[in-house]
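Handout, page 2. Input:
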Amino acid sequence: MATIREVAKAAGVSPATVSRVLNYDQTLSVNEATRQKIFETAEAMHYHKSRKTRKSKQKRLAICLWCDQDQEIKDLYYYSIRTSAQAEAKKQGLESQVIYPADPLPDPAALSGIIMIGYQQYSPDRLNEVKKSGLPLVFVDTDTLKLGYCSVVADFGQAARGLLGAGQGADRPFGW
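Output:
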């Protein structure tokens, strides 16, 4: 059985071109004669895609909490943030790992990013550890933009002002 490199050499094109043509890459700009030559060469050389699938490195996201499991279950606000983050990570094809205060931070090479739920509740050592990881970092429930970090914060004050200040009517049941 031939390899992509062997097909490429026989067809007079690069291995990348052979791979993209055989995988029907629509973004590749190649003339029809070259495309046909690649398919004919691959067939004549009995090329077949490898049955081995490379184990793609699963992207992992660390979700750090400032409280332990017992505290978290009593605080449904933070529990709901964590479970929602995990659900969204799963939808995006990411594996997530919950990190509680007693847990060590995983090797940064094994992670794609870190979500920190809270900010002020963490020890300075934990904050330094995640900052030094060099990974994409997002803080949830604390505005850390002035510190140079992305953040997600619910603006309950603005929501209340919108609800109370705009009035309610049949056409605007919540004031906005």
